[in-house]
Amino acid sequence: MFNFKLLMLGSYMFMMLCGLLVFIFKCNYLLVSLLSLEYISLSLFVGLINMMLYGGFSLDFMIIFLIMMVCEGVIGLSLLVIMVRSSGLDYYGVLNMLRC
Question: Is the pTM of this model over 0.85?
Fold first, then answer.
Protein backbone atom coordinates (compact mmCIF):
# COMPACT_ATOMS: atom_id res chain seq x y z
CA MET A 1 0.00 0.00 0.00
CA PHE A 2 2.29 2.78 1.23
CA ASN A 3 6.02 2.11 1.39
CA PHE A 4 7.55 4.59 3.84
CA LYS A 5 11.14 3.50 3.19
CA LEU A 6 10.78 4.13 -0.53
CA LEU A 7 9.31 7.57 0.14
CA MET A 8 12.22 8.45 2.44
CA LEU A 9 14.77 7.26 -0.13
CA GLY A 10 13.06 9.32 -2.82
CA SER A 11 13.13 12.45 -0.67
CA TYR A 12 16.87 12.10 0.00
CA MET A 13 17.53 11.51 -3.68
CA PHE A 14 15.53 14.67 -4.45
CA MET A 15 17.58 16.62 -1.92
CA MET A 16 20.80 15.35 -3.48
CA LEU A 17 19.54 16.15 -6.98
CA CYS A 18 18.68 19.71 -5.94
CA GLY A 19 22.18 20.15 -4.51
CA LEU A 20 23.73 18.80 -7.72
CA LEU A 21 21.65 21.16 -9.85
CA VAL A 22 22.76 24.16 -7.79
CA PHE A 23 26.36 22.98 -8.00
CA ILE A 24 26.19 22.58 -11.79
CA PHE A 25 24.23 25.68 -12.78
CA LYS A 26 25.16 28.25 -10.09
CA CYS A 27 28.89 27.68 -9.80
CA ASN A 28 30.16 31.22 -10.46
CA TYR A 29 31.16 31.84 -6.87
CA LEU A 30 33.24 29.60 -4.64
CA LEU A 31 31.01 30.09 -1.59
CA VAL A 32 27.90 28.89 -3.46
CA SER A 33 29.81 25.86 -4.72
CA LEU A 34 31.00 25.01 -1.21
CA LEU A 35 27.51 25.39 0.24
CA SER A 36 26.00 23.14 -2.40
CA LEU A 37 28.69 20.50 -1.78
CA GLU A 38 27.95 20.63 1.95
CA TYR A 39 24.23 20.30 1.20
CA ILE A 40 24.91 17.22 -0.93
CA SER A 41 27.06 15.73 1.83
CA LEU A 42 24.42 16.49 4.46
CA SER A 43 21.62 14.89 2.44
CA LEU A 44 23.81 11.82 1.85
CA PHE A 45 24.61 11.66 5.57
CA VAL A 46 20.98 11.86 6.66
CA GLY A 47 19.95 9.30 4.04
CA LEU A 48 22.65 6.88 5.14
CA ILE A 49 21.73 7.34 8.81
CA ASN A 50 18.11 6.47 8.09
CA MET A 51 19.02 3.48 5.96
CA MET A 52 21.36 2.15 8.63
CA LEU A 53 18.80 2.67 11.38
CA TYR A 54 16.08 0.88 9.42
CA GLY A 55 18.46 -1.90 8.46
CA GLY A 56 19.76 -2.42 11.98
CA PHE A 57 23.40 -1.79 11.06
CA SER A 58 26.11 -0.26 13.20
CA LEU A 59 26.64 3.47 12.97
CA ASP A 60 30.44 3.34 13.27
CA PHE A 61 30.88 4.20 9.60
CA MET A 62 28.78 7.35 10.09
CA ILE A 63 31.31 8.82 12.50
CA ILE A 64 34.07 8.37 9.92
CA PHE A 65 31.84 9.87 7.24
CA LEU A 66 31.05 12.85 9.48
CA ILE A 67 34.77 13.40 10.14
CA MET A 68 35.42 13.37 6.38
CA MET A 69 32.61 15.92 5.88
CA VAL A 70 34.17 18.22 8.46
CA CYS A 71 37.61 17.90 6.85
CA GLU A 72 36.14 18.69 3.43
CA GLY A 73 34.43 21.77 4.85
CA VAL A 74 37.61 22.99 6.55
CA ILE A 75 39.66 22.59 3.37
CA GLY A 76 37.01 24.41 1.34
CA LEU A 77 36.83 27.31 3.78
CA SER A 78 40.61 27.63 3.90
CA LEU A 79 40.70 27.77 0.09
CA LEU A 80 37.98 30.43 0.20
CA VAL A 81 39.98 32.53 2.68
CA ILE A 82 43.13 32.20 0.57
CA MET A 83 41.26 33.17 -2.59
CA VAL A 84 39.58 36.18 -0.98
CA ARG A 85 42.85 37.41 0.52
CA SER A 86 44.73 37.09 -2.77
CA SER A 87 42.13 38.45 -5.21
CA GLY A 88 39.52 40.18 -3.08
CA LEU A 89 36.61 38.16 -4.54
CA ASP A 90 35.38 34.59 -4.60
CA TYR A 91 34.30 34.82 -8.24
CA TYR A 92 35.81 32.19 -10.53
CA GLY A 93 36.17 34.65 -13.44
CA VAL A 94 38.82 36.58 -11.50
CA LEU A 95 41.18 33.59 -11.60
CA ASN A 96 41.66 33.90 -15.36
CA MET A 97 42.61 37.56 -15.05
CA LEU A 98 45.20 36.79 -12.38
CA ARG A 99 47.13 34.47 -14.70
CA CYS A 100 47.74 37.15 -17.37
Answer: no
